[in-house]
Design brief:
alpha/beta, Aldehyde Dehydrogenase, Chain A, domain 1, Aldehyde Dehydrogenase, Chain A, domain 2, 7-stranded mixed β-sheet, 6-stranded mixed β-sheet, 14 helices, about 35% helix, binds 2-aminohexanedioic acid
Length: about 500
């Protein structure tokens, strides 16, 4: 087996052009990987189509057997694979390990679901009829996944798609090809039949080739820009489905009835975990005027102190950003906020030399950037997603309705949380915040895999994970069987065939 290759139709396939994966904390090279072409994608889609006929004939529990092997490996190798995640995507080590745990949970969910009922038994108006909603696999599913959960999110997509009887063509993020390679090895070791699982490494052009191909469904988790174009393109093609999950401009609402001992850590975790690079990370803190000054003082003190550094070091809270271009983007948004006239409270955009650990001079470092501003609908910095540790404090006065209006004042609706000891405020928020993932007295990150994961408004269409993904990777058939010798129609429709009089 070649060390780094695509995995297509049961073979490791080399590519002509290659790209290098780098550790974002050190710049160290982690290896060269083939850059997938349209032809590679076409070969993979053909292989997946060919493999589909046999794969779909297996029973659900039999298909799930392959995934149980993957589950055992993920459990046994959590530390080793967690370290790989940290080395390749820069998340601190407990987050690297949590990525493997989340992957194992998703595989467990999907494989376990192989023994659960699928479809529904539905009543019929006619006693002699049995009616059902049955599900069948759609065919080839294209999966396009991001770098920030490089082991977990591929399994959000692929574990369910495979157990439901589909075959897959997967394009992992170009920033984390080594993690992707490790997943392909797990699939190979589990003995997954040739063509059922295919991986084409590469960039956006390979992803676009999957979207343009004959795949029946496209599952996408990643940036809003790409997700919207996929949703538009696939949505306009009859018979094709897309489930896309994109980012947001998420907020934590801290009301006048908040317990600040809970509010401050909830806000720190929401804003700075994964260096703000979760699609559920919070970049807005909407805080009631009665608790504003104290919250601000405590949040600012925490942001000044959070440990940025070597992600392999257990004392680190925030690792580096994923790549130089992304650091540039975060810097630009920090500058933009300043240009837009906000009051900067913490600026660790450039770390001091003594904050950068030895041997990590080439890492893509950035620390927290915190500012305050009155709400202004024209400010780009409080409406556009930065995907970094860039956080606005927005003071509000008045009732919970006003806080929820501010929470909803973005085109996005992925995740959010409310911190309050008043259940009426919590219930109002629950019923009126426009969100796919909403929390009370918790950070707005850290969803468990058995929940639907996806957003409303511009944050997504469809939920590319767990139970909800089943809608995107299966067809439903309304199946009705007559147990009588006579035909009796529903809705009182006459079944008489009337003939012309002689
Ligand atoms: C993402 O932010 O891109 O809910 C995914 C969470 C994780 C998944 C995040 N389970 O924070």
């Amino acid at each position: 087996m070649a060390s780094h290759a695509h995995y297509i139709d049961g073979e490791w396939v080399e590519g002509e052009e290659t790209f290098v994966s780098e550790n974002p904390a050190t710049g160290e090279s982690l290896g060269a990987f083939p850059r997938g072409t349209e032809e590679d994608v076409a070969t993979a889609v053909d292989a997946a189509e060919e493999a589909f006929e046999e794969w779909r004939e297996l029973s659900y529990p039999n298909r799930a057997e392959y995934l149980w092997d993957v589950y055992e490996e993920l459990k046994a190798r959590t530390d080793e694979l967690g370290e790989l995640v940290t080395r390749e995507c820069g998340k601190e080590i407990s987050e690297g390990q949590a990525d493997i745990v989340e992957a194992a949970h998703m595989v467990e969910w999907a494989a376990g679901n192989g023994r659960h009922p699928h479809g529904d038994v539905v009543p019929s108006e006619i006693a002699a009829k049995d009616a059902y909603m049955r599900r069948s696999p759609r065919g080839v599913v294209g999966c396009i996944t991001p770098w920030n959960f490089p082991i977990a999110i591929p399994f959000w997509h692929m574990a369910v798609a495979l157990v439901e009887g589909n075959t897959v063509v997967w394009k992992p993020a170009e920033q984390t090809p080594k993690c992707a390679h490790a997943i392909a090895e797990l699939m190979v070791d589990a003995g997954i039949p040739d063509g059922v699982f295919n991986m084409v490494q590469g960039f956006g052009d390979a992803g676009a080739a999957i979207v343009d191909s004959d795949v029946e469904s496209v599952l996408f988790t990643g940036s809003a820009e790409v997700g919207h174009s996929i949703a538009n393109e696939v949505g306009g093609t009859p018979g094709k489905l897309a489930a896309c999950e994109m980012g947001g401009k998420n907020a934590v609402v801290v009301t006048e009835h908040a317990d600040l001992d809970l509010a401050v850590p909830a806000a720190v975790l929401s804003s700075f975990k994964t260096t703000g690079q979760r699609c559920v990370s919070s970049e807005r803190l909407i805080v009631h005027t009665d608790v504003y000054d104290e919250f601000k003082e405590r949040f600012v003190a925490a942001a000044e102190k959070v440990a940025v550094g070597d992600p392999l070091d257990e004392g680190t809270f925030m690792g580096p950003l994923i790549e130089p271009e992304h650091r540039e983007k975060v810097r630009k948004y920090n500058d933009l906020a300043r240009e837009e006239g906000v009051e900067v409270l913490v600026d660790r955009t450039e770390l001091d030399d003594d904050e950068i650990p030895d041997g990590h001079e080439d890492g893509h470092w950035v620390g927290p950037f915190v500012y305050e501003t009155p709400y202004d609908p024209d400010l780009r910095c409080i409406h556009e997603e930065v995907f970094g540790p860039h956080v606005a404090l927005i003071e509000y006065d008045g009732d919970i309705e006003h806080a929820v209006d501010l929470q909803n004042a973005t085109p996005y609706g992925l995740a959010g949380s409310i911190i309050s000891e008043d259940y009426r405020q919590i219930n109002y928020y629950r019923d009126h915040a426009e969100l796919g993932l909403a929390y009370g007295n918790l950070p707005c990150i850290g969803a468990e895999v058995q929940l639907p994961f996806g957003g409303v408004k511009k944050s997504g269409n469809g939920y590319p994970s767990a139970r909800e993904i089943i809608e995107a990777v299966t067809e439903r058939t309304a199946w009705t069987l007559n147990n009588s010798k006579d035909i009796e129609m529903a809705q009182g429709l006459s079944a008489d065939i009337k003939v012309e009089e002689e």
